[in-house]
Amino acid sequence: MSTSSPVIVALDYTSAAEALAFADRLRPDLCRLKVGKELFTRSGPVLVEQLVARGFDVFLDLKFHDIPNTVAQACKAAAELGVWMVNVHASGGRRMMETTRDALEALPQRPLLIAVTVLTSMNAEDLSELDLPEPAVQVEKLARLTHDCGLDGVVCSAHEASLLKSICGADFNLITPGIRPAHSAANDQSRVMTPIEAVAAGADYLVIGRPITQSADPVEALLAINRSLLIKGQ
Ligand SMILES: O=C(O)c1cc(=O)[nH]c(=O)n1[C@@H]1O[C@H](COP(=O)(O)O)[C@@H](O)[C@H]1O
Fold this sequence. Notes:
The protein is α/β, with parallel strands linked by helices and 234 residues long. It has a single domain, classed as TIM Barrel, CATH 3.20.20.70. Helices cover 43% and strands 15% of the residues. The chain has 10 helices and 8 strands. The chain has helices at 16-23, 37-53, 68-80, 94-105, 124-129, 135-148, 161-168, 195-201, 210-213, 218-228, and strands at residues 7-10, 32-35, 58-64, 85-89, 112-116, 153-155, 173-176, 205-208. The chain has an 8-stranded parallel barrel with strand order 1-2-3-4-5-6-7-8, surrounded by 7 helices. α7 (161-168) links the parallel β6 and β7. The relative contact order is 0.14. It binds orotidine-5'-monophosphate. The site of orotidine-5'-monophosphate (OMP) has 19 residues, from β3, β8 and α9. Substrate binds at residues 12, 34, 61-70, 120, 180, 189, 209-210.
């Protein structure tokens, strides 16, 4: 089952039990779910399979960044878990991305393959220390490369969404973390935007963690975001 909501809830919980307890209060038509490095390192592929078996579209966010063969094989392993989306770092370069794309295209059913441009926690100062240009410039450069390598989209901040839509086209998926409903704490995020602004800017999917999972009523927090985006069927 799929959902008309653009929200991907980041299940940044410390245990499979907490993640499953939250998932069991949801339905797959309300949101997609993301399993990231902390939860996967603690709970492994079994949890991913359990979420897929419950009917959720699962984004396995392990941000692979390694030599081409290693990343391609890791993404194939992710595909075998039945995930909906998997990601790599665009800074791994053309050969890494093209080898991975080819490995997934050979499968009968493949997940979407997207690339992280510049982490939404990073600001101009962080990039300057690495001798990199300001975020918008670096994001554009990596998004153009990702598009040219035939991937399905990029992770970027919503601040870069409208520029990237105009450059890479409507079919190139923009996945935007750093989403904060009005009055929410930014935490460690730097380049943030509200859900409504992000969608208006051209974001296709909104990755949202703490504003939902750490709220007093996580399910209501998700539903409120969906309502604000005029998602039907709540
Ligand atoms: O790939 C990601 O999902 C990701 C990329 C990025 O640039 N920034 C970013 O925050 N994320 C992830 O998105 C989630 C954001 O969580 P919150 O900041 O709690 O909403 C975390 O799970 C991050 O790992």
